[in-house]
């Protein structure tokens, strides 16, 4: 197979532009990511995912989406089921842990069933952030819980449901965004808690799911670990903590490199992320100038990084296990967790 570069790109609309086709052909990115701007109808999404893979001559290219449920769901009505917010499963867990774990698996399995049918084979989920009361409101609905046990149980169930549906999960935002006091799309969150406290809480779900094939970093400044650089750009966070201390052996992706939590140019951020130990640069806004900046920093996937990337790719290319969609839908309706509230 032709060598792939260490980047994951978005595209601008419901079909590829001529520029995008040419860019993807020349750059040979490892994968792609879709957003609401790329979603119209089932047939249109199938055509778009096929076109992305054709553009880079890569029939097994991972095509990601952010399908968490609730406020972060790119697939939603009228053409698709709009999954409930992760917080709803955490609320059920407080009353009935077994039912909540079952519901999380069923919900993820249904999401995977829908994604796979559209040519989408990777999901930026589950979110393993242990949300704290001080966290920015944008995290509250997205969190699977406010304690490590709840997040771990529901995160495991979600990841399993995705994998059994032939969709590769990417856990996020490591080493934990649950104390973030800002929305990293706009500002840099800072975490002042000690590493010891983080080890007892925030890190726990990530360690429990460290065998998952992909992990996404957080654009968060952890003052007790690296007071100068946000997690995504910090060798102390990526190499020393996640790779060495945790022993994580999967592929490490950045969160969107274009987010305002990070300083410097897009090219500088991309190079710094790779130097810190990230392996795939995720770029989402589909602006050609920014994509060209990422491309100047991206490198070919070789050695252990390629092995990790190939492992993730094999999960994304896998066939779903047998599944009765009707039974799953009925059970989630019984639990009042089939769709997001209107």
Automatic annotation (TrEMBL):
<feature type="region of interest" description="Disordered">
    <location>
        <begin position="304"/>
        <end position="327"/>
    </location>
</feature>
<feature type="domain" description="Glycoside hydrolase family 3 N-terminal">
    <location>
        <begin position="31"/>
        <end position="298"/>
    </location>
</feature>
<dbReference type="InterPro" id="IPR050226">
    <property type="entry name" value="NagZ_Beta-hexosaminidase"/>
</dbReference>
<keyword id="KW-0326">Glycosidase</keyword>
<dbReference type="Pfam" id="PF00933">
    <property type="entry name" value="Glyco_hydro_3"/>
</dbReference>
<dbReference type="InterPro" id="IPR036962">
    <property type="entry name" value="Glyco_hydro_3_N_sf"/>
</dbReference>
<protein>
    <recommendedName>
        <fullName>beta-N-acetylhexosaminidase</fullName>
        <ecNumber>3.2.1.52</ecNumber>
    </recommendedName>
</protein>
<dbReference type="GO" id="GO:0004563">
    <property type="term" value="F:beta-N-acetylhexosaminidase activity"/>
</dbReference>
<comment type="similarity">
    <text>Belongs to the glycosyl hydrolase 3 family.</text>
</comment>
<dbReference type="InterPro" id="IPR017853">
    <property type="entry name" value="GH"/>
</dbReference>
<dbReference type="InterPro" id="IPR001764">
    <property type="entry name" value="Glyco_hydro_3_N"/>
</dbReference>
<keyword id="KW-0378">Hydrolase</keyword>
């Amino acid at each position: 197979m032709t060598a792939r570069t260490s980047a994951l790109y978005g595209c601008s609309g419901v079909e590829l532009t001529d520029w995008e086709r040419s860019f993807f052909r020349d750059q040979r990115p490892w994968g792609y990511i879709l957003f609401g701007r790329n979603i119209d109808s089932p047939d249109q999404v199938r055509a778009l995912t096929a076109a992305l893979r054709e553009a880079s001559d890569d029939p097994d290219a991972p095509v990601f989406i952010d399908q968490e449920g609730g406020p972060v769901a790119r697939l939603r009505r009228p053409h698709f089921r709009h999954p409930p917010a992760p917080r709803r499963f955490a609320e059920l867990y407080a009353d009935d842990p077994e039912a909540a774990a079952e519901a999380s698996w069923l919900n993820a399995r249904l999401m995977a069933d829908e994604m796979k049918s559209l040519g989408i084979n990777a999901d930026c989920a589950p979110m393993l952030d242990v949300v704290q009361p001080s966290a920015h409101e944008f995290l509250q609905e997205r969190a699977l819980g406010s304690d490590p046990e709840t997040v771990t149980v529901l995160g495991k169930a979600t990841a399993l449901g995705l994998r059994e549906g032939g969709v590769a999960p990417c856990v996020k935002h490591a080493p934990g965004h649950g104390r973030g006091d800002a929305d990293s799309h706009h500002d840099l969150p800072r975490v002042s808690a000690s590493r010891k406290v983080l080890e007892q809480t925030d890190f726990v779900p990530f360690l429990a799911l460290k065998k998952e094939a992909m992990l996404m970093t957080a654009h968060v400044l952890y003052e007790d670990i690296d007071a100068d650089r946000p997690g995504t750009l910090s060798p102390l966070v990526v190499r020393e903590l996640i790779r060495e201390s945790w022993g994580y052996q999967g592929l490490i992706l950045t969160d969107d490199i274009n987010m305002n939590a990070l300083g410097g140019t897009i090219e500088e951020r991309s190079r710094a992320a790779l130097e810190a130990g990230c392996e795939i640069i995720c770029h989402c806004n589909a602006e050609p100038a920014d994509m060209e900046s990422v491309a100047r920093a991206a490198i070919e996937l070789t050695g252990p990084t390629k092995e990790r990337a190939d492992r993730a790719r094999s999960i994304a290319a896998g066939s779903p296990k047998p599944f009765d969609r009707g039974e799953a839908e009925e059970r989630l309706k019984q639990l009042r967790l089939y769709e997001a509230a209107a």
